[in-house]
Every structure is written in C-alpha cells, then in structure tokens.
From TrEMBL, chains A, B:
SMART domains assigned: TOPRIM
Keyword terms, alphabetized: DNA damage, DNA recombination, DNA repair, Metal-binding, Zinc, Zinc-finger
C4-type zinc-finger residues: 59-74
Organism from which the protein derives: Azobacteroides pseudotrichonymphae genomovar. CFP2
Gene name, Swiss-Prot/TrEMBL: recR
Domain (Toprim) ranges: 82-178
Family, similarity comment: Belongs to the RecR family.
Entry function: May play a role in DNA repair. It seems to be involved in an RecBC-independent recombinational process of DNA repair. It may act with RecF and RecO.
GO BP annotations, alphabetical order: DNA recombination; DNA repair
Protein name: Recombination protein RecR
C-alpha cells in the first residue's frame, strides 16, 4: 500500500477505487484530473451523483426511473395501456424504446429472482404487476427478461401468478437467429427454436416495409 | 444520443462521462452502481471528491500536496535540508519516496514549461525555488524532470536561473540501462549515454551492499 501525503487525497483515491472497474492507478489519475478542474466543475460532479441517489424517483405505475410521480411513458396518453412489457431494469426500457417498435407500457421488476444472490419474488415489483393486471385494462403481458436460469425462473413465477387473471394473454420475445448472424455459427438451442417457431415468409416481407 | 427518462440520471451520466477514460457506456454502468449503493456511501463518495478539490493544501515550502501548512517531509527534522530534488508533480515525490534512497527535501514545480499548452515559467513554482536557493542553506539541487523536450527545456531554464547563486551544485538523475533490461533492446540514446557516463565497477559493488 502506497503512502499518500494527504488524508484528503487518500480518501478521494479510496472512494474512486470503490467504483466497479476502477483500480488504484486509475483512481489516482482521476484524482489528479479532479485537482486540475475548477472548484465549480468538481462540485457539479459530486453534487450530481449525490442528487441522483437522494432525489431519484421511481414511477408509481411502472417503477421506471423518472423525475416526477408518473414517468413520461406512463403519462403519454397516445400509448397502448392494454399492453405491458415486463423488463428487469431501465436499461432494457431504453433498449426497447430505441427500437421504436413498442407502443405499450412497461413494468420494471428491478431484477430477477435469484436465490444465489438472495433475491426472492418479494424483493421485486411482482406484486404491483399483479395489481396492475387485476385492476387495469390489461390485454397482454410481454415477458422480456434475459434468457438465463434466473430470467426463466422469474418468467415462470409471473406466468403462474398471472395466467388465471382476467384471461390476460402472456407472450414473450421471439427467439431466433439474430439479423446479420451466420447460420453456421448460431448456437444449437437458438437454431432449434428458430426452426420450431418458423414464420410465414410472406409475413417477413410485410415486416420489412 | 440516447434519451434518458430522468434529468437526474442524464446529468449524473454526463458528469461521469466527463472524466478521462470513461465513455457513456461506462458512465451508465457507474450510475446504476451508484443507485444500488446506500445513500450514505454515495454521499461519502461525492463529498470526498468535493472536499479534495476545496480543502486541499499545498506545502508552503515545497508545494507538495498536504493537509497542513507544511508537509510531513519538510517538517521532518531528520531530513537533509541542504539537498532539494526538483520534480514535476506529487506522483514523482511518491515514486522517489518509495525507493527509500533519498533523504533530502523536494520542490514540486506543478508541471513543466510547455509553450504548446501555454505553460510558461510564471505558471510553475520556479520563482519560489530560486528564493529557497537564495535564502536557505541549499548545497545541491537534483533536477528530476521527465526526459522530454519540455522537461529538458525546464531543466535548462532552472539551470540558468540558479547556477550563479551561492555556488550551489546542480545535478540530474543518472540515465542508463534499466535494471533487468536487455542491452540488445535498449534504445541507442540511452545506451550511448550509459557508455559515456560509465561508472567504476568497484563502486557498483559498494552500492549493492
């Protein structure tokens, strides 16, 4: 462990080094960079991170991150409120929004069921999803979780809790060969599913327009 | 540019992305990490960086970073006050301190003369170095700047300003083949200098003890 000539310096290096992917060498570089910036710039930086943690809101409907009580997506009256896409985190919301192909609402679980990490159904926004399905005019739920063991477990848990409510339709993302992928290098499970769930070619022509 | 659902989120991502070596993807990851930490942890982080910038002191004698008026090295009475090692930054102070071979004091310039970056002698702690040489009991100055064009320029500038004061001796770091380096792969200039400045072999035996 190196000896630093100042407690403030050492403390700042330690704090930077706590961030994921940042070692002590990088932390030292970031600290020297901070010393070269103006007081105002460094205060803006520090306060932005503190404000993020202290003042961030979660939408009361879909639990997405937002600045108000209800997020922009849920309060957008032109969106289809009968369609809910269930995702793990805000990152997936942003990814799906970027496709511009989805015009329903979201429900952000805040993770997936993972006994290894001690995350049970009670730690996720599953109860609130069930309430939305019970109270709302929901016609279809799209499960858009990762295709991992944890994602599959969470999918199945939600399916069991929701399938008997109000005859709601439960769907999931299509799995198949990615656009641009070579068939030769596609993994067996994906390729197998893409054959089982093959689609009418005339439909793909329509989709491309 | 991606659209974020929250101003606080976007602001925090922008602030992280201003740091050197951190792009928007990494900034997003750091922001999500911050959201998972406790309020206390994030406040400690933000405040440590702000405090570093606002409260950091520079030693009134050598201009090294420190918490008090005078740094631990300058206030250590067992060190040789007649020997001053001139360095660019605190990083070099730490590197030289780690060798445990130097027992004099330092003088931290805060950079090197670089007309390209608009850094002149007036932006560095050169005047204060001249004052130290004039007023103090300095016997020798060791110039330990980088062997770059800017470092050489700064060395020469300091040499011209100091060489006629109080018959002070001005030395510089030995240049030569690094320990563990193969002669075959050593660059020509270094190898040439190591031949010109060759040393008595019997002296190296004494040094190793």
């Amino acid at each position: 462990m190196e000896k630093y000539p100042s407690f403030l310096l050492e403390n700042a290096i330690n704090e930077f080094a706590k961030l994921p992917g940042i070692g002590r060498k990088t932390a030292l570089r970031l600290v020297f960079h901070s010393l070269k910036r103006t007081t105002k710039e460094v205060e803006n930086f520090g306060r932005a991170i503190i404000a993020l943690r202290n003042e961030i809101n979660y939408c009361k409907v879909c639990y997405n991150i937002c600045d108000n009580e209800i997020c922009d997506i849920c309060s957008n009256t032109s969106r289809d409120i009968s369609l809910i896409c269930v995702v793990e985190n805000i990152k997936e919301v942003m990814a799906i929004e970027n496709t511009k192909q989805f015009h329903g609402l979201y429900h952000v679980l805040g993770g997936v069921i993972s006994p290894m990490e001690g995350i049970g159904p009670g730690d996720l926004q599953i109860k609130s999803l069930i309430e939305r399905v019970k109270n709302g005019k929901v016609r279809e739920i799209i499960l858009a979780l990762s295709t991992t063991m944890e994602g599959d477990t969470t999918n199945f848990y939600i399916y069991r809790k929701i399938s008997n409510i109000n005859s709601v339709k439960i769907s999931t993302l299509a799995r198949g060969v990615s656009i641009g992928d070579e068939i030769e290098y596609t993994d067996e499970i994906t390729l197998g599913k893409s054959i089982l769930n093959r689609i009418d070619f005339s439909k793909t022509i329509v989709l491309q327009h």
